[in-house]
Write a structure and sequence with these properties.
heterodimer, A: alpha/beta, Rossmann fold, eight-stranded mixed sheet, four-stranded mixed sheet, 6 helices, globular, B: alpha/beta, eight-stranded parallel β-barrel
Amino acid sequence: MPVIVDYDAGNVRSVQRACEHVGMVAEISADPDIVARADRLIFPGVGSAESAVDTLRSRGLDEAIKTFYQTGKPLLGICLGLQILLEHTEEGDKDCLGLVEGACERFEFADRSVKVPHIGWNEVEFDSAHPIVNAMQSGDEFYFVHSFYAKPFNDNNILGRTEYGGQTFCSVVGHENLFATQFHLEKSGELGLRMLKAFSEWTASC
Amino acid sequence: MLSKRIIACLDVRDGKLAKSVKFVDTKDIGDPVAKAKEYYDDGLDELVFYDITASSDARNIMLDVVEQVADQVYIPFSVGGGVRTVEDANKLLWSGAEKINVNSAAVQRPELIAECAHAIGNQNTVLSMDIRKVEICRDFPSGYEVVINGGRTPMGLDALEWALSGEELGAGELVVNSIDADGTREGYEINLTRMIAEAVSIPVIASGGAGKPEHLLEVLTEGKADAALIASMVHFGEYTISELKTWLRERGLKVRMRY
């Protein structure tokens, strides 16, 4: 069964509702054994990376997610979930799961009128032939809420980019059986649901 | 490039949709769940529900409305009205709301903002401010005062000062609601909106006074707002969400058109 990781970082029920809407009945769990043995794993999250990483470790969920990843089954990271999949985040100077090479940095703009967090609907330019990305079009808009952004070390892990305040950042990450979005698929209307549906059908074998 | 957001505001009383004019004489205009779905299908970016239910017994009705909306609407929505504790906030979030609006209770006890920001995240904690114009004086250097209880009680608190405190305490967004403009449909209070939007580094949602598409364009450009709250201009069918967005885009404003 698909499993949504519960680590007190965000509204897992919104994610569960959206999954159900696209025909993917998923269980919410904080149990490392259930997480490690899921058919498909959804790793959402909002809030502070610092406390989120601490909570993951204290529950043994960090190792459970790594164990799951090794099985080669599809893993979806959303927002903070994406950021924690990288090696490190500037937020609280925390080491993260390290499934993707790279780190997260805070938005810094010389222009004070550019607001941080980046909140609202913004476009994604997709740059990949990934099966999930194939369901979407460049210019599709999704709902973002974040102050930190991912910088994958390898360009081929960047599947989508978004421009904010004159800066282009990575908004979609892909690596092997892992797919992750900086935006909230579950709150991005029908296009978000379409992407979630594409994830639910993805076998991660190609 | 980030789009400007159009947010529809639904006042809910005893589980039904109401629209107030200058905070008095509220009347029922329908089912909030059906309205939310209609706007969602027409390309709305975000929703706000204000629970104006008087009795605390009826709070569970609101949680039920939130559940039903969350089952059908996959855009962010916030709920305000009567949020006094972290427990209130958590209940609404668990029922499916994305963000919580705090207003009167935060003016009376500012720590509520910090408590919510800590418990549910800054980005989910929205400070909603009801503001009226006053003479500029020592107590009100900005010329605007914060009021509570639906506009009935002045608080002796300067609006700009309160906006800055709210940001400092951890609010992730501000709703700037002009009591003077609310329900008039004569346009947003542009000076107030711009003054606050320029002073804070978090997004500002303009509220109160929308009656024509021109008002939205004005507040989202000249007023420096990140989002515009609308209500009666769409609730009574005079304009649709997609019409408004098309009109704004034709005038060069970046809005979300593909959905």
